[in-house]
Amino acid sequence: MVTPSTRRTFVKNLALLGAVGAAGSWLAGCDKEEPAKNAGAPGVIKQAGDKPVAFKYPDNPAFDLVYLADSLGYFEGTQARPQYIGKIAAPQIIPLVGTGEIDFGTRMVPLVISAIASGLDLKVIAAGGKTLQEAPHMKYFVRADSGITQPKDWEGKTVGFNSFGACAEFVSKKYLRAQGVNVDKINWVVVPDNQAEQTLVTGNVDIAIIHPPASGGAEHNPALRKLWSDYDLDGGLGGMAPYSGHGRFIRDNPQATSDFVAAIAKAGNWVNANPDDARKVIAERLGMKLDLVERYAYVEDLIITEPPIQYYIDILQNEGKLQPGKVQVKDVYTNQYNPFAKGAV
Question: Could you say which residues form the signal peptide (predicted)?
Answer without folding.
Answer: 1-28
